[in-house]
Amino acid sequence: MPGFGGVSESDRREEIVSLVDERPTTPYTVGELTVELSEWFHAETDGMVPTDEEIHSTLYDFDLPALDNSGRIVFDEATGRVYATDYEAARRSMSPDSGPEHGASVGDGSSDATALTGERVTVSKRLLTDLAVLVVGLLGVAVAASDLLPVGTSTALVPAGLVVLYFISRA
């Protein structure tokens, strides 16, 4: 797909290889690459940015298989993971306690996929929890300050204070 998003196919594929090579011990998912390329398109173009769905589809159907066939990356279509070509060498050089994915080979799909999925879910849960605390805090401030409650407006600081204490305890 030449000229996709106003950027040449070769430039786009070079960026993909560059991103993947920057993380030799941790594979990308197609979704992660989609986000990275979307940001890259915003920086490289004058508003001709394809949608995330278009980027994802182009990655999965065209770019990643072509880069895998040329030996520049390793793309596992079954898991949607994208590995640097030196992934195994980098993993073997890691010490046993230096990463959550240590111990599984690239193609076995066992603890490697489980560890990486578990890590991503943990980050996602934390983000959702933080967002929920912010929303509840903002709603609490809005309700307390809006005369809907029989208590004074000084109680509006209580939800805000709880949100601040929550984030302090997370730090």
Q: What would you note in describing this structure?
A:
It is a single chain. The protein is mainly α and 171 residues long. The chain is built from 6 helices and 3 strands. It has helices at 9-22, 30-44, 52-69, 87-93, 111-145, 157-170, and strands at 28-29, 73-76, 81-84. A 3-stranded antiparallel sheet has the order 1-3-2. A hairpin with a 4-residue loop joins β2 and β3. α2 (30-44) crosses α3. The longest helix has 35 residues, at 111-145. It is elongated and about 70 Å long. It starts with 8 loop residues before the first helix and ends with a helix.
Task: Sketch the topology as an H/E string, one letter per element.
Answer: HEHHEEHHH
Number of strands: 3
Overall mean pLDDT: 74
Distance between the termini: 45 Å
The amount of beta strand, in percent, is 5-15%
